[in-house]
Design a protein that fits this description.
CATH topology of the largest domain: Beta-Lactamase
CATH superfamily of the largest domain: GAF domain
Largest sheet: 6 strands, antiparallel
Oligomer: single chain
Number of strands: 9
Shape: elongated
Helix content: 40-55%
Number of domains: 2
Radius of gyration: 22 Å
Strand order of the largest sheet: 6-5-4-9-8-7
């Protein structure tokens, strides 16, 4: 794991937060950490180290071994590690399918996963056109403003969607964005009926996309694919061909994934 350096430190560090993060790295590197180890590594009193470890334990990032009372990685930290590994594997397996999707449509292809009310773009292959949608790889956006996000939200029952938006916070990115839960639920019903989602300038002015969910062999939604293009190229006549390419690629990727990714 890459170690932080003095040059990469934030301008206004929060010492307690920094110590907690250093403890997480210590748990990752050493596997087993005693209060005395944490005290020496952080340069703090044992009582301070004990309180920090207790806070990590409270939030599930650490747990105590019953016999030794030393600290080891907790379920929350392990879940983060598994999630990161799963996303890396998904990105690797999705890359050739993204390339094929870009070649079939001539448009930028995206691979994304749902992360609460947002979607995280794991990978992108850019269109060769001079006028094209740029890569979104490594970025995130509001799920209700994107085709991949709406495709993934449509996999959830309405009550779960309402739970996600229980505070009614639905920021609009453009004047075409959905900003009301009633409107979102209606849009998701349409997505379920037709099997794909369309974004017409809802995340960025002048940009559109078509998205579909990737199901593994057990039928679980593990990601979504989209083809994104300037709206001037996302015409009514081209839409059927793009939809067919999206759905075909989603099926092919899902067949390659099997059930192991979602089952971890």
């Amino acid at each position: 794991m890459k170690k932080p350096t003095a040059d990469s430190a934030p301008r206004y560090p929060v010492k307690s937060a920094g110590n907690a993060l250093r403890l997480l790295l210590l748990l990752h590197d050493r596997q087993v950490v005693r209060v005395s180890d944490a005290s020496v590594a952080l340069g703090v009193a044992p009582s301070t180290a004990h309180r920090l470890l207790g806070m990590l334990q409270h939030h599930g990032f650490a747990q105590q071994a019953p016999a030794s009372r030393a600290y080891v990685a907790g379920p929350a930290l392990l879940a983060l590690a598994v999630s990161a590994a799963r996303r890396t594997e998904l990105r690797e397996q999705g890359r050739p399918h993204l390339t094929r999707l870009m070649e079939e449509t001539g448009e930028t292809a995206h691979l994304a996963v749902l992360d609460g009310r947002r979607v995280l773009f794991l990978d992108s292959i850019e269109s060769p056109h001079a006028l094209r949608v740029a890569s979104r790889s490594g970025t995130s956006s509001w799920a209700h403003c994107t085709s991949v996000g709406k495709a993934l939200l449509a996999e959830l029952p309405d009550d779960r969607v309402l739970d996600l938006y229980s505070d009614q916070l639905m920021p609009g990115l453009t004047d075409r964005s959905i900003t009301a839960t009633t409107e979102l639920l209606a849009a998701l019903r349409e997505v379920r009926q037709q099997g794909y989602a369309v974004n017409r300038g809802e995340s960025e002015q002048g940009v559109g996309s078509v998205g579909a969910v990737v199901h593994d062999r057990l039928g679980r939604a593990v990601a979504a694919l989209s083809a994104a293009a300037p709206l001037v190229r996302l015409t009514k006549s081209r839409l059927p061909q793009i939809i067919a390419a999206i759905r075909g690629t989603a099926l092919a990727l899902g067949a390659d994934l099997g059930g192991e990714l979602a089952g971890r």
